[in-house]
Every structure is written in C-alpha cells, then in structure tokens.
C-alpha cells in the first residue's frame, strides 16, 4: 500500500492538453471543450423541445413528450453508439469521433433540458399569460416576452446542474476513442501499469474540483435568483 | 444506409437472441444487487448526515459531494483497476474468487447510487414532522431507535417512488459496466454487432429492452402513487 503520485507530475501536461500542439487537443481541455459546446447546443435543443412540449397543438405536444421520454429512457451510452452508426451513414462519409460525441451529448442532454424548460414555463402563473393576452399580445408574444423571460431566470440553477452532469457525461467519450481526460488517464495507466489507483484518484479529484465549483455556483444562484423581493 | 439489408431474424431468434437475453438478465442482476446495497449504504449515509454528531455529519457530506461530483465511469475504473491498492488483502483475495468485473461494477454502482438515494431518504425523513422525533425522544427512545421504530417506518412510504426511479437510473447506468467487461445488455448488443456487422438490428433490440424497462418502472411508480401513496397521504 505505497502510493507514488509522481506519475501525475510526470504526465501533467498530457493530462491537461493531450498531444497538443503536436496532435489533437486532449485531456482536461478537450473535456471542457466537449462540455461547453454540447451545453450551448443542448440549451438551444432543450428550449425548442421544451416549447414544443407546451405547444397548444395536442399532436405536437404528444409527439414531443414521447420523443423526450424515449431519449430519457435509454442510457447515454446507447445514444453514443447510435450516433456512431447513424451519423456516418447520414452524412455519407467518416465522421470525427469528437463530433459524434457532441451530437450524442446534445441529443441526450436536450431531452433533460426540455424538462427543465417545461417545468420553468409551467412554474409561471397562468395569470401572467392571461394578463398579457388581455393587453392585446398574441399567445406567442405572451410566451416570448412575458412567460419565457421570467421562466428562464428560474431555470438558471437547473441549467448549471445540467452542465455539471454534462461534464461528468463527457467521460463516456472514452468509449469511441476521443482523447478527453478519462481516455488520457487510461492511456497513461496502460503505459505505466502500476499506478492505477493514483491516476484514477487524481482524475476523480480533477472532475470533482470542476464539478463542485459549478454545483456551488448553482446553489448560490438558486439563493440569489429566487423572487424573494416581491 | 440506404442500400442496407435489414435482417431482423438475427436478433429475434437463435444464438444472438440468446446473447441479448443473457445481457438483459445480467443488467437486471447487477442493478438488483446494487440497488439493495445502495439502499443500505444510502440509509447509513442519510442517518449520519442528519445526526447531531458533527464528525459523522461532515464525513457524510464529504462522501456525498465527492461521489456526486465525479463521473461514474471514473469511479468504475477506480474500483476495477485501482482497488487492489486500497482494500485489505483479505478482501482482495475474496473478490478474486468472485467474478471480479461484476464485483467491481457492483461496488462502483452501489457507491454512486447510494449518494443519490441518501438525499432521497433525507428529504423523505425531513417530510415527517419533527414533533414525531421529539415525542419519540421524550418517550425514552434513543436517536437511532426513534429513527428505527418511529421515523423510518413512516418515511419509507414516501421514499419508495424516488427509490424506484433510482433503480431505473441504475439499470441505465449499469451500461457503463461494459467498459470493464461485464456482459450486460449494451455489451452484448456490441458483441452481436461485431460478430454480424448488423449494428442497427443489435442496437434497436437493446434500445427496445431499455425502453421496455423504463416503461414498466414508470407504470410501477404511477401505480404506487395512485393506490398506495394517495390513500395514505391524501391528494
């Protein structure tokens, strides 16, 4: 039971940026890149799906809810494998693995974001919409100018929590060979052989520091953003 | 894709069908074992988190934050590759006699899930009015005995629906155990794909099994809320 953490120091640059600038970006930098790009895309996707799931047209609403629940019903790993098979067939050529993972993370997280958006919209009292419509706004104007701005404010902490999940989920990119932090760790582990405990404990700490920072931010926002001054 | 020959017979009968079935069984097995252990561990952590003894509260808090803010995949790798350095020799020898992949998967899934279950249990316990605890304590029960005889029997009814949902999350999370070679559903689907090059069929079969499990569990929760919880708590 003797630990030797010098293996971390010897590979610290590789942990941070992978083979960059001599090769692809990797390590922590790639993890953050995947998380941020997927987060922005799935925010848009979640907003669209969320708005569709409160649509006044019953058919649209039902189809959207079925799609959202189907995505939430399968593991992320399945979505990644689906993208891995479907995307090359759809674009008619090979697809870079990083983009495959971004597509999978976006589709998967959009379904969860959509639920946040729906809950946020339903959390705004009906009276707001009614008042907006009675002042002469159209229903879509009431949604975009009155309900959504208030709802989005309440959704912010949940979005940050979802971003934390996203950072953790980027570790699955390992499966299709994207050299983000977990993949880099397994590479170093395969090369050095005798320090698995140190290596995986170290990357757990790295993930923890990043995720805990955002979890704390989310808690602070939750206190800060509640409408207590009414 | 457009000149792809679908061959659904591959996954509806024969050897590959058996693989998918055995994958489904392994998924259910690893989830069932883990949910039981995770519930027990989660209960301990929740009680530690709520006790008046500061060190135990802090230990529980550190455990919860650390487990919930690190990826499950990293935890699985940690236990699979790295556990031999931190576990006592006796435990290592014992794990060696078992199916080690399965055991490491169970350890990681149990610890990861227990953190979420602990929070569910805590909010269930907090929903019981605190006069119940005060009454139990003044009747002479110790803290742990009041929990055991007064608070937990009432809280468990409220805890069951989130617990069932955690089981659903667990079945989905158990797909990550394929990375260390546990032959669960996703692993088997991938095996079928690499033996037959019929990726669409294999992953459609696995996806449908996961969806069926989600559906059954969603129905179970609705049933429980309607026929067990509502009569007790009112609407």
Number of E-state strands of chain A:
0
Question: Helix and strand string of chain B, N-terminal first?
Answer: HHHHHHHHHH
Per the principal axes of the C-alpha atoms, what is the gross shape of chain A? elongated
If you consult CATH, what is the topology of chain A?
Answer: MetI-like fold
Provide the low-confidence segments of chain A as ranges. none
Give the proportion of residues in helices of chain A.
over 70%
Name of the CATH first level of chain A: Mainly Alpha
The radius of gyration over CA of chain A amounts to: 21 Å
Known CATH architecture of chain A: Orthogonal Bundle
Structural class of chain B: mainly alpha
Largest interface: A-B, 43 and 39 residues
Strand content of chain A: under 5%
Instruction: Let me know the number of strands of chain B.
Output: 0
Assembly of the depicted chains: heterodimer
Terminal CA distance of chain A reads 58 Å
Helical element count of chain A?
10
Helix content of chain B: over 70%
Q: Total domains of chain A, how many?
A: 1
Give the class-level CATH name of chain B.
Mainly Alpha
What's the structural domain tally of chain B? Answer: 1
